[in-house]
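User: My notes are a mess, but here's the protein and zinc ion's SMILES. Can you give me a structure?
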Amino acid sequence: MKISKRIGLGIVCILVLALAAWVVFLSVRGQENEAASSITNGEASTNLADQNSQIAQDPRTAALKAEKYFLERNLVRYQSYYDLHPDFTPTVVVRDVNANLDKTKYVDVKPADLSYGVLSLINKYNDLGEYQPEDLVDLGANYGSGHNMLRREAAEAFIKMAEAARADGLILRNISGYRSYAVQENLYASYSLRDGAALADTYSSRAGYSEHQAGLATDINSVDTDFQYTKEFGWLQEYAADYGFILRYPEGLEEITGFMYEPWHYRYVGVEPARQIVREGITFDEYYAYYVLGEKSEW
Ligand SMILES: [Zn+2]
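Assistant: No problem, the inputs look usable. Here's the predicted complex:
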């Protein structure tokens, strides 16, 4: 009996020791983990601080901040874009990023913000969905044909503009204004069937991404690039802004707007914004980023 008691006591002692060892092991491991995680956090915050101070000290940052259209909210994007295109000037970096060229067309998209009314941006990053304006007005046979509707404010401005041109002996007619989602879907499908999607994308919007669907764009007289050589085009160059219209897809800025040069496509934005856009020689995409959104975050 004595021997078996001793054995029993021995077993209990071993169990107690094993338990104590296990507790010590767990607590040491816990401390190690804590230490490890505090080191990682420390490193992370140091890295972030390093990054910020690197950006602040980067001589390119000063150059970017000196740009007229610099936006604080885009600083990190400017830096990344600059890293990809070190040969670009700060002016080009700011312009391109403000126009979202660091994003992927038709992939990085968000719903178009229609709360800006006639200053809403509709392009390959801003999706209208199946939106249909509520205040479409028919221009009537004197001012156009085909898809002959625009939103009321744009329609009234168009008629005023056409009347002023008529007084100068010139005829301005809308040949395509408001186009529904379904109409645009068919148009794009037929163009991409004929020319392939890559080419169609240079001159036609996919459904949901057309200014025509917003009822704020008009194609005037002819969808032929020779329209640029007409007196009517010259008149529009001089006076369209006085009626609130801008040439939306100018020559040489295809990359910014995402569209080939379209001398016939005019967008209604209102008189003051139109005059400012012409005065500053910028696209509506840039105007929207800087003057409409400003520092309001976009993505
Ligand atoms: Zn058009």
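Residues 2-57 form the longest helix (56 residues).
User: Great, I'll file this with my notes.
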